[in-house]
Design brief:
Helices cover 72% and strands 1% of the residues.
Length: 567
């Protein structure tokens, strides 16, 4: 089978997903079981993957599904706990005191608070935490999903304290061979890796500057009374100020401190600066903007866990006490990723399955305490005492969270295994590369010297499939580096483009959309979200591709291994 036909077959599940979800507006619970079956058939009969390996990849996907559902449950439980404790009422009034303007609030909650949660945790947690918080303070549920997905771009490459680069890029490259080549030139691995990290930080800082602008114009266009782009552009100076308040310290941290801190520091500094500016009215239009009365909202905007004022609780909780669960969550997430003893304690509780169904090389595991879900549940338990809740009210929160979880569980049971079959298809009777790599090879062979422009798109494709920047980097970093060698251009720049694109791909990753939708109760409208988030994704990969071409062919930026052939 020639490469073109391989790529076409490999692309079939993606195309089918798009047609069913976006084109025909099928709910994911109808579309994804069919896409799973088609993927399995292609793997079995076109790729020659054994039935045992397809089954093992499916079980691996189910293990990952349990992890995702655990995170969703924790996020739902925190939201419902705060609803019944009265904390949400205080948080809502607190945002109103900073600014009643929803354009300011979406920047504070989605762009800055969401970026901080991404920097601390990753794993799709920002949409799961920031999305429900936006609903709690009065945003339409569908809008909260869209905004939660859109901010899973700029901070993602440095999410979970740098995991996509520290694990994804370093684990995805032939590090031993590259280190030997570097040592022959009197350099070391850090010299190459630092170039990658710096270019990722600078590239994201440039691309990410427009994300707050897109957030506000999408909000006023798709969820405003007047469906107006200009009402969003009216706050353009403040949106750009908010972008730079994050991206400047973000880029500086990436260049001078390394991959662990850009998203964390950028978001913390940005939150402080932007909150102060908003409270002072700096660059904020005098005319505030708000949604129409919720009674006028279309049914498709609404979620099953909408926060009605009469459901939030009448107890008065001081604003700081109301925010303590979120502050505790952020602190514990950072500590769990940066303090070895604490991390080891949490990871000690693990359920692992190695070589699923025999010597397949496919493994999976579940670490309930280390995953954000475990930390979220712990914070909820502490909140019972912090907010002096009745156990009866906490019981209601548990019941409501479990009920909302069921819909997401059914969809993810098919979505994640479908992805794992594609990724694990590289071991087969026909000696084909895996489906994602086949698509990437076809793109490279088709476009030649202009391939660097498409490198971020290839990275985004990997993240679209895997729902993870880290997995996309693990899967495609060495491939991207090899193409750079063949073209005699900077491998570090190509790998950086891969990481930037993989971050952008999170905005359209199907199982991330499903997870985000579940946290606010809008299951079945995934296609509507994807139709909108694909716009900022295209913006991101096109700009990142353009920057890559300029870096390689105009500025001629190199790296310590430019022109060195690996043995």
């Amino acid at each position: 089978m020639n490469l073109g036909l391989q790529a076409l077959l490999a692309f079939t599940p993606i195309a089918l997903s798009g047609i069913l979800l976006v084109g025909l507006a099928w709910p994911a619970k109808r579309a994804m079981p069919l896409v799973y079956v088609v993927t399995a058939i292609i793997a079995l009969f076109a790729w020659g993957v054994s039935f045992n390996r397809v089954a093992a990849a499916t079980l691996e996907g189910l293990i990952i599904t349990v992890q995702v559902l655990w995170i969703i449950f924790g996020a739902l439980l925190l939201l419902n706990t705060l609803k019944h404790s009265g904390g949400i009422a205080s948080i809502r009034s607190g945002f109103a005191r900073i600014s009643p303007d929803r354009r300011v609030q979406v920047i504070l909650i989605a762009w800055l608070f969401g970026s901080f949660i991404e920097g601390a945790s990753g794993f799709g947690t920002p949409a799961a935490v920031a999305g429900p918080l936006m609903v709690a303070v009065g945003f339409p549920a569908l809008a909260a999903v869209m905004f939660g997905m859109m901010i899973q771009s700029t901070p993602v490459s440095f999410g979970a304290v740098g995991t996509p680069l520290l694990v994804g890029v370093q684990g995805g490259l032939q590090r031993e061979q590259m280190t030997t080549a570097l040592q022959a030139q009197g350099q070391g691995w850090p010299d190459f890796f630092n170039v990658v990290v710096s270019q990722v930080a600078i590239g994201h800082a440039i691309c990410g500057t427009m994300i707050p602008v897109l957030l506000v114009v999408f909000m006023t266009r798709y969820f405003g009374r007047n469906r107006s782009w200009t009402e969003g552009l009216a706050i353009l100076p403040f949106a750009l100020f908010s972008a730079f308040a994050f991206t400047i310290p973000y880029a500086l941290a990436g260049v001078f401190l390394g991959p662990e801190f850009p998203s964390l520091l950028g978001a913390l500094i940005g939150l402080g600066v932007v909150s102060f500016a908003a409270r002072a009215g700096f660059l904020v239009p005098k005319k505030s903007w708000d949604f129409a009365d919720p009674k006028e909202w279309p049914a498709e905007w609404m979620g099953s866990i909408e926060m009605k004022l009469d459901e939030i609780g009448s107890r008065k909780i001081p604003t700081l006490v109301a925010w303590l669960p979120y502050l505790m969550l952020a602190t514990l997430l950072v500590l769990s990723r940066t303090v070895p003893d604490f991390k080891n304690m949490l990871t000690a509780v693990a359920f692992n399955a190695k070589n699923i169904l025999g010597e397949t090389g496919i493994s999976g595991g579940f670490q309930p305490l280390y995953l954000p879900g475990g930390i979220l549940v712990f914070v909820c338990l502490v909140t019972i005492f912090l907010h002096r809740m009745k156990l009866q009210d906490f019981g209601k929160a548990v019941h409501e969270s479990g009920g909302t979880l069921l819909g997401a569980g059914f969809v993810l049971v098919f979505t994640v295994p479908m992805v794992r079959i594609m990724i694990q298809s590289g071991v087969n009777a026909n000696d084909f590369t895996s489906m994602p790599i086949a698509m990437a090879h076809w793109v490279a062979d088709s476009v030649g010297d202009v391939y660097p422009f498409f490198a971020p798109t290839v990275g985004a494709l990997g993240a679209f499939l895997a729902g993870s920047n880290t997995v996309s980097n693990l899967m495609l970093s060495q491939y991207q580096y090899s193409v750079a060698q063949a073209l005699s251009v900077s491998g570090a720049t190509m790998v950086a483009a891969q990481s930037i694109g993989a971050a952008a791909g999170n905005m359209i990753a199907i199982h991330n959309v499903v997870a985000a939708s579940a946290t606010v109760g809008v299951m079945g409208r995934e296609g509507l979200t994807l139709r909108r988030t694909v716009i900022p994704t295209i913006y991101y990969v096109v700009l990142a591709g353009t920057l890559t071409m300029v870096s390689m062919y105009v500025l001629k930026i190199g790296d310590p291994l430019l022109g060195v052939a690996l043995k």
